[in-house]
Amino acid sequence: MKLHTLKPAEGSIKSRKRIGRGTGSGRGGTSTRGHKGAKSRSGYKSKLGFEGGQMPLQRRVPKFGFKSLNKTICKPINLDAIQALATEFNLDTISFDAMVEHGLVSKKDVVKVLGRGELTAKLNVSAHLFSASAIEAIEKVGGTVNKL
Predict the structure, then answer these.
(1) Among 140, 141, 144, 139, which residue's Cα sits nearest to residue 127?
(2) For 99-108, what is each residue's pLDDT tens digit?
(3) Cα separation, 107 vs 128, whole angstroms
(4) Could you tell me if 108 and 128 are in contact, meaning their C-beta atoms sit under 8 angstroms apart?
(5) Are 96 and 126 within 8 A, CB to CB?
(6) What secondary structure does DSSP assign to 73-128, as a single string?
(7) Do the beta carbons of residue 138 and residue 125 sit within 8 Å?
(8) pTM score over 0.70
(9) Could you give the 3-state DSSP secondary structure of residue 13?
């Protein structure tokens, strides 16, 4: 055993400095909080976006336009995706539940069928919304449209 091989016992040395335990500890007095101001006080919690009294960015940036609170956000599904689903899983009825089951949409989505792509199979399609071109394409091949 030599002096350079000695190590303290395991667990005897703490990994962090204790704060606010007197001036002799080197972390007393202001307890690393600095002098005065809101951040030095107990119970301080900053508001989100607070910039020390300066006009916050959210209020500095000019606002423009209108955003409707009642806007419905739809998940668009095109006819080519419906045709691919029908051929892959050999379906003749494409319901909302079938779309959820095969991972095309989630349960909470509002589905709108759009008219991109071609439909070759005669299908019964159920969804919340349809575009005019999608209705026309589905009925052209002999399928039916069911609005939920």
Answers:
(1) 144
(2) 999 999 999 9
(3) 12
(4) no
(5) yes
(6) PEEEEEHHHHHHHHHHHT-SEE-HHHHHHTTSS-TTPEEEEE--S---S--EEEES
(7) yes
(8) no
(9) coil
